[in-house]
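Tutorial, part two.
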Amino acid sequence: MNRRRLVFDGKGKTLYEGPEPGTLIQHFKDDAAPVADAPAADAGKTAIVEGKGALNNRITEYLFQRLGDIGVPTHFIRRVNMREQLIREVEIIPLEVVVRNAAAGDFAKRLGLAEGLQLPRSIIEFHFKSDELNSPLVTEEHITAFGWAAPQEIDELMALSLRINDFMSGLFLGIGIKLVEFRIEFGRLWENDLMRIVLADEISPDNCKLWDAKTGEPMDKDAVSAGGLVEAYQEVARRLGVLTEAPKAKTRGPVLVTSNDKLN
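Running the prediction step on this input gives:
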């Protein structure tokens, strides 16, 4: 069995060397957030949620394909299997771009806003990408001073993020889901001497705050508090049209459909 060279091992994904130069294999894990209130012996351990990686793989594939259809450049090439994607290797910009449409979580607490309050307009925030520092909020002054991105790159990051937000807000609203906020990453894709900024990483319930439009119930990783994380992720995938129950099959759980299946 050929062993693939490990390039990066993160919390939710692992990157391996791809089959061709300039490509990587992105593997989606079943790892969830660290177990809350765990005994001392289990401190720091990560919960394993069976099936989460496959769901995030399919949801990301679908959203990246749809964004590509409207001209948003991405690192996605194709899905390899239930848990893996073939992607272009990029130079990750060390920023997390957070787009907020409504007040929620830490943002609501920070500004003393009511949970769920619709913002006057979508707000973009930048966070320095660092797990050790818990991805602190940074300003454009920090970004340019430390050379994380040039001013014109910041403008492009903001323009692409707003375009992604406009598309995804409408897409999710059409299936009864409110896109409260999301966090995305970008990378520099080098083609000979030319460089362009492309959407990288993933877009899934792991890095989006999604609420059911009618009930306000979480349909993202916050659903884990009620023990319903996989069910919530399955429902998002089902509404997007990338997950369907197996017809007349004596099986438990859903079946992923092929990437050629689209919403009508």
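Residues 35-43, 246-255, 257-264 have pLDDT under 50 and may be disordered. In part three we will examine how such features are distributed along the chain.
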